[in-house]
Queue: 3 jobs
Job 1
Amino acid sequence: MFSFETMKRGRQIRLPFEPKTDMAPPLIDIIHRSFVLGLVGISGYGLFMGWRVHEDTLRRGRGVFVQFFVAFASQFTLFIEVRHLYL
């Protein structure tokens, strides 16, 4: 019978059977491992591509923001100059 006292004394616990270590893994195990590894790879690829698209969007947005800001600021500056002329 198993108990923590047995573990403290350093006795080995015997299994009711000997596991087979020289046996090839079953086909279902190979298929499952391939499937899980494929999902991990696809998830990693998705994270990588999401990061690349995000970086590209930020890079393209910087130029658009600068163009918008320059156009907006030039109109605002023109408005201030005209307002000072008439006040």
Note: Residues 26 and 84 are 86 Å apart (CA to CA).
Job 2
Amino acid sequence: MLVTVMNVLFRRVLATMERGCSMFDMRPIMADLWRLRRFHVVDLARAAKVPEETIYAMLSYKPVEVASAKKVLACLSAWYQQEYTLETVHVKLLTGETEWTSQTTA
């Protein structure tokens, strides 16, 4: 049991470092939401009116367009009655030629 907990924590630390954010920023990424909710990608893409590739990119922590990310998170929020926004979920975003990670400035 302890080994499992340590493995989970280790993977979480590595994912946090890979995202380039603070160790104390514990916002979930899309893959965390999928592990928690086990939603169907096809249904989510259809409901959010985005291509399935967008959902798969978000699950793989690859950059997506801001508008698409907002649609997907809004759809998840409506489904599960929980606030999923760019402020509460880490999403890698495309803005023109550059990519950046959604982070609060506070």
Note: The first strand starts at residue 64 and ends at 65.
Job 3
Amino acid sequence: MVLDSRQVAHEAYLTLSLPEGSIEVTNPSFARDSLAGTVALTEGGGAQPLMNVRKVTVVGVRGVKAGQSGGLVVIEGNGVKVSFAGAALTVEGETYRVSWPAAAK
């Protein structure tokens, strides 16, 4: 679901591989026309929303391991697998934001 010229909500699943890393998110609670369960939001840095993705936000996820070590951000568990080098991680409750380069927020 395209939200604006740079943001896309991925309600069912998202698999994306970029030079900086990869994102895999599946939503076991998926229901058409609903944002219930685990949802990923990508934000692009250019005219096309899935080109030059600079940020991913995953909401509604519980019981994952998330951390930052040696310049690598990793989030794993319950249908979520995110791994990015040179990224910044922000966690607020069940919301995980990963942005890169690390200086961008």
Note: The beta strands are 7-10, 13-18, 21-26, 39-44, 53-59, 65-69, 72-77, 80-85, 88-92, 95-99.
